[in-house]
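Much of our argument rests on the idea that a fold can be written as discrete symbols. In the encoding step, the backbone of a single protein was reduced to a row of integers, each denoting a local shape. We regard such an encoding as a compact summary of how the chain folds. The record that follows shows the chain in one-letter code together with its fold in token form:
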Amino acid sequence: MVKWTADFGNDPNDDYNLIVIIYCNEEDVAIIRNLEGELVLQWFAKKPNLEVPVDWLIGLLVAAKERLARD
């Protein structure tokens, strides 16, 4: 069974700004960042293609927008 998780943390390569790291089965597959006031989702290419649960992703994006936009 595929397990999706996400962690909010600080990016040491970007002045410790808050980011969200998305994991699939404990492997990082994407990062959400706030770049100049706009949320950006950077998805890393993986094979085979991953099927992301939409309701989980929507909830995560809403939480990221609230927490990362506090800058």
Notes: Helices lie at 54-68.
